[in-house]
Amino acid sequence: MSAVAIEGVWKFYGDYPALRDVRLEAEPGACLALIGRNGAGKTTLLRIVAGFSRPGRGKVKIFGTEPRETETRRRMGFIGHGISVYDELSAFENLTLFGKLYGLPDPRKSALEWLERTGLERVRNGLVREFSRGMRQRLAVARAFLHEPSLLLLDEPFTALDDRAIAVLQRLLREALAAGKTIVMSTHQLREALDLASHVALLSRGQVAFHGPRTPEMVADPGYVYARYGDSG
Amino acid sequence: MRDKLVYVLGAAAILLFVRNILAITGLPPEAQQGAIFKIIFFHVPMAMTAMLCSFVALVGSVMFLITRNFKYDAVAVAVTEVGLALLLGNLVTGSIWGRIIWGIWWTWDARLTSALVCWLLYAGYLMLRRAIEEPTQRATFAAVFSIFAFIDVPIVIFSIKWWRTQHPQPVFWGGGSFPPDWAQVFWLNVLAMILFGAVMCAVRLSQEEQQRELDSLRRMAHAF
Amino acid sequence: MNFPRQVLVIAIKDLRAEIRTKEAINASFAFALVVLLLFSFAFDPEAETTREISGGLLWIVFAFAGTLVLNRSFARELPNDCLDALIAAPISGAALFLGKALANYVLVMAMEVVSLPVFCIFNNVGGPVSQKIWPILMVMALGTWGLTVIGTIFSALTVNIRLREVMLPMLTYPILVPALMAAMLLTKGLVLGQPLTGDSLTWLKMLIGFDLIYTAVSLALVEIVLVG
Questions:
Q1: Which residues have a Cβ under 8 Å from the Cβ of B115 and sit 6 or more positions away?
Q2: Looking at chain A, which subunits does it touch, using at least 3 CB pairs closer than 8 Å as the criterion?
Q3: What are C163-175's pLDDT values in tens digits?
Q4: Does residue A182 come out as left (phi exceeding 0), alpha (psi in the -120 to 50 range) or beta?
Q5: Chain A neighbours among B 118-147 (CB < 8 Å)?
Q6: Is A205 helix (H, G, I), strand (E, B) or coil?
Q7: Looking at this predicted complex, what is its ipTM?
């Protein structure tokens, strides 16, 4: 069974199709990099996979289940454009809050563990609003990994991060892959992403222009996929 | 085909209106209120058609949420707009009648108040639509709002009626009596008003569909 | 984790964030004070008629000031895209909605409970109000729930749209007309020293009915509002 199966998904804004008959699959343990220009539909597709919006037509299956099912949501972790943690709460409070919402057996213990793994244990009682940008981003990473999801959905994960946060995220992603977890990420930072990716999909104008395993050429020349399969530009 | 049907129905509505107006002017003035009483031939059918519109808006909204077909959203917005226009006509004709019979343009009578509240409710629907850019979200949120508004209509009407019956009213509704031989003209005018409303809805419906097509073409032009 | 605990976790999260900043509650109470002050210019507080209109005045203050709290409810989730994380979490939309409604309810009630004595002093109705304080609090509890439920669901509906601050009152007040009317009439009757019987009882039932109907409709539709 595929970890993610996107079965002929369409998304309409009015009559305009932002996604057109997208079919993609990711096997368990795979790391799929979604690439494509701005407006190609990467974020729209990821949000549908994450269950934040419904497809106009078609289906998404996560380990064979619907994205909006409670059990499915428990198995997914999402990092979007925002950090999705509360400025008015402390780092520890943020993580225990999400630990409770995910029904973890011991939210406080998990929170402490992930603060440590992201190098935030020293500031665990500090309010997020007082954090530096890099610390906030690491906390966002901790929030997404907290419930040990088997599927990670990352929307432009490296774009806003500073060097240390990128290092933390890359280490965690590698560990996750080694543990057999699945990753789907959209990205502009081809080098960081292709380094991790096992598969690559190119979205162009809401359609899948290319989907296949990552090849050595792609890492050597990140522009390769665009040049070979993409539209002009 | 649909265009032709709209023209035929529109012509039928106009002819029926002309026929009814001739018949209404031919009727003698009502015993107590005189000629102004005849405003009821338009005042009440407008209210009835507006109510019908709010019901169709509910059906369209629920159908949109089930099927996600934009046709139903277009139906909902078309009937809501036409219903609002008719309800406004109802308020204005009521106000004119009130000026002649009561000597005042407005009073917080139960029916006037409920009509005004309902008008504001559905005006909110249109305002909400204007504030949302993305068509799918606009249709979804508008449909949810329409359901809330429709449920409120009976509660508003009953509670305001209740409220008024507890208070002494400075003026009362009615006073005139409806001669039985006027009923036929009245119902024919109800029919004319519903026809008229349906034609207006059909026109707005095709405008709405063209608007959506234009909108998607514009998006496509920007995207490529 | 079961449903009531999820509701509680969300509510406590909102309340804790609010207590740290006090943005909504301070603004709401300050606004209530300003409106109360303006009333003293509009109406003669010494006159006997004040008692007649006290119910109406009080609920106008509550509805206006309450909107400031409700406007913040989902707007609070905007800055860091926190709403995404809540929608992604394995709790139902109903739990999320009820949790937020509960937090709003506590905040709006707090504003009202503080405003009530100020209102009584300014308008010289302390005596009659204290005699009927428990029934008045009950009417406040019921009326405020209606205000909160409608306000919370529409806060979710308007959170991402243009002119959010204006849209919320424009959309909610017409819908709230029956509930506000009931609350105003009941409060007025109590201030005038009438018992809760007969017509008043019917109004009370109407208010409870309004609360129940709109709680049910909101719970049924909240998932559509959140994920489309």
A1: B47, B87, B90, B91, B94
A2: B, C
A3: 888 899 999 999 9
A4: beta
A5: 134-136
A6: coil
A7: 0.91
